[in-house]
Sequence to fold (254 residues):
Amino acid sequence: MMEKLLMKSIRTALFKANLKGKVRKSHSRIIIDCGNKKLVDELRFVPGIASYSPCLKKSFNDVYVSVKKFVSVKKPKTFRISSQRVNKNVSKTSVSYDMDLGARVVDDFGLKVNLRSPELNIGVEFIDVSYVFTKKYSGMGGLPQNTRNKFSALIDSKKSLVAALLLIKRGLFPNFFCVKKGCVDGLDDFLFYNYDIVYIDDWRDVEGKVVSVGWGLEKLNRINALKDRGCLVLTPVVNSEATFINKYKTFLNK
Fold:
């Protein structure tokens, strides 16, 4: 269920960015067949993705072609091969692939193996075919959108917008109640389903039984008033506000 929702979000991200590609599942991986480099930037906004990597794709027998291409382009002095058999039907073990591919790199390029701190760490995953990569990008993490219930997001500041984003990352789906126009600008990058925006004159006009607000002592009276109405008030916070804001500074600066 969650994988299907995540794949739907990825397809929507492709559509919003005017990118063509095919999204499919193979074993425990979601594979996106898209040759546009712009996809790397688009995927970082999709809740539910822990990490992703641009890959070179070849058959099992031709996996060294991809490895050799990365080594030729990067020109490292030391390297490491990190193989993983996602498809357990592959005959050879991951260690065997590490040794065989590494030996060929040493023979062809004269490089040294460094398992602890290589200049180039070449990842190889054997799924339906071989996928070879050297970069791993961190995603937003969390859960795919729309895997849990709805909530009302009371938006009157950047902090309240970030609070809503934290809940969206946990799979909840928002209905926005905005005290002023334009206060949800930029959030569209993180949303992959249709959502409602209601503009209200006063925060007391927010509707719903589950309400999110921003954090801070200045919100304490508001939180208590909503609780007195029988609302479940969600005030997600982070260990380091500065660290979190820096992580999403692109979003906050919109």
Observations:
- Helices lie at 2-16, 39-43, 63-74, 94-109, 158-169, 220-228, 241-247, 249-252.
- The chain has a mean pLDDT of 86.
- The longest strand covers residues 78-85.
- The first helix runs from residue 2 to 16.
